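hey can u check if this looks right to u? its 344 residues, i copy pasted from the old doc so theres a chance i mangled smth
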Amino acid sequence: MFNFVILKIRQSFSKTTQNSNITLKLDNSILGIAKETIENESDAIKGLIPLLDGNFENAVNCILASNGRVVVSGVGKSALIASKIVATFNSTGTPAIFMHAADAIHGDLGTVQKNDVVICISKSGNTEEIKMLIPLIKRGDNRLIGITGNMESILAKQSDFTLNTYVEKEACPNNLAPTTSTTAQLVMGDALAICLLKLRGFSSADFAKYHPGGSLGKKLYLRVSDIVDNNQKPQVFTDSKVKEVIVEISEKMLGVTAVLEGQDVVGIVTDGDIRRMLNKYENIGGLTAKDIMTKGPKTIHPDVLAIKALEAMQEKGISQLLVMDKTRYMGVIHIHNLINEGIL
């Protein structure tokens, strides 16, 4: 009966696929196409290296010397690439703005200000919008950088500096859909951005200013002090009874408590110390924190980045650190804090 039901399901599915003109491929042709696409685009990217010349260096120096922004423009798929390049520039210390070439010739040309450098992106370099935009940019005395795959195009010949993004063919089997060419444009934009980043001395601290949100931003700016201030501050004294120690660890929910002598931290008691104590002693009634604590606890300064606290915990194989500002005990940072913040 079961086999009969399965047979009916298969027959029904077969009829459905035939009626829908669907051909199911059970071989590896899909993976083969994907691999071929990636290989084609990879080869095209490598092909950009010998195309780099003095124009690229001059373009970078031109942007560096400018007191304005970088205005990046294009049409169609090149416009989408232009928008991404703008985002990369802005996040790496080069002020930039996107201007669609079609909109530019219909009122948005005012986007380009006196000291701005303009980058126009076009595979052919001969699209109507780009051809109309070029003289308008030149009339304003703005420097023009062209990114094109056609070095005989109007864009290539009219640009102050031309970056060659020639590709032999698109990944599209019909050699029509912009695929390999747009990848080459994007990579050239990344190369510009990274050169500018390094020449400006753009640091991780600078990067954090532009990426305050998400786990990436937190890794770059969140400090131990930002976390420890929100935690409770577990502490007992050397003469505190074991029951007090257990209660303190339980109530503060950090799996640990600092042990103080006066105002000075002299040790730490963790959940592990409590378990070891129970295994070692039959009678714990007379024990104090000093009897079971671990001396020389691992500490960290409140100004240290939270990501460094995580690295210290991983290196030492522990799950919490005491936070100390010189000799002043400020609290505890736990690995769960870092997980909750998205650091780990």
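Residues 180-200 form the longest helix (21 residues).
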